[in-house]
Design goal:
By secondary structure, the chain is mostly helical. It is built from 13 helices and no strands. 69% of the residues lie in helices and 0% in strands. It is globular, with a radius of gyration of 21 Å.
């Protein structure tokens, strides 16, 4: 698909998402805090930077939120993304998935055509990934209903146009597991896993490593290469929910032959050299 086609698809998706967001928040304020008049003396960038620094330093949180809201209402995408994450995670505020959905939708609507080579592109792509998560499950007691097809379209766009590794990983999972009208497709799943793994997405590395080490289900067994991906994933795993990755590596290493371990080491050296 050509870049122009990706952009057109992104615009159509963003318009549909934006329409949902508008309906979801009809009659509600866009944000929970009204920006003070003092913020009007700042540019949106200055307001975002000031608010973000206040949050990082543990300063006046109310003022920080006011400045972030001002920047967001002026259309500054990083402020919208920051507020989306704050409401999605309940970071210092009551968790509000609908507000988070609203902020991510504005980013998707306004920046579908952003160049994938700019610094802000990764935040735009992340907004698409975040929206896909809401469409996979829906938001209870809101007009945002589960829509697996739209979730897949959002991931497809972020994975293809922006080349986002997290989108590629999530899209791979949809194909590997099969959801709604997205049939199980191991070949497509492996393709997206491989792209994400090459970019250092450690969860993709772990699943790809498991599949290659075990083989089966149409996947030729490549134990050495699989062990290499598992080792990379284990080295990157740090979260409290990443125990399964460490366990997968340890079990695979214990079951590998000496030759397979040697092959994994050779693959690892090549990968490290190519990544420099």
């Amino acid at each position: 698909m050509r870049t122009s086609s990706y952009i057109r698809m992104g615009v159509l998706i963003a318009a549909a998402v934006s329409a949902t967001a508008t309906g979801a928040l009809d009659g509600q304020p866009a944000s929970g805090v009204q920006a003070p008049h003092a913020s009007a003396t700042l540019t949106p960038f200055q307001a975002f930077r000031s608010g973000n620094e206040l949050l990082k330093s543990g300063g006046d949180r109310k003022r920080a939120m006011e400045e972030l809201n001002y920047a967001a209402e002026k259309g500054y995408p990083l402020a919208q993304w920051k507020l989306g994450r704050i409401y999605a995670e309940g970071d210092g505020v009551k968790r509000d998935d609908l507000k988070a959905f609203h902020y991510f939708s504005r980013i998707a609507s306004d920046h579908a055509e952003s160049s994938p080579y700019t610094q802000q592109a990764r935040f735009v792509a992340n907004a698409y990934v975040s929206l896909s998560g809401y469409y996979l499950t829906g938001i209870p007691n809101s007009p945002v209903r589960a829509d697996v097809n739209r979730a897949r379209e959002l991931l497809q766009y972020a994975a293809s146009y922006f080349g986002d590794a997290d989108a590629q990983y999530q899209l791979a999972r949809l194909y590997l597991e099969g959801h709604g009208e997205t049939p199980k497709d191991i070949r497509q799943g492996l393709r997206w896993l491989g792209l994400a793994a090459q970019k250092g997405q450690y969860q993709a590395q772990a699943i790809l490593g498991q599949m290659l080490f075990r083989g089966g289900d149409g996947v030729p067994r490549q134990a050495g290469r699989g062990l290499m991906w598992l080792q990379l994933a284990r080295d990157a795993a740090a979260g409290k929910d990443d125990g399964w990755i460490v366990k997968a590596y340890e079990e695979s290493f214990a079951n590998a032959t000496e030759d397979e371990r040697s092959i994994a080491h050779i693959h690892l050296e090549k990968y490290v050299k190519s990544a420099r």
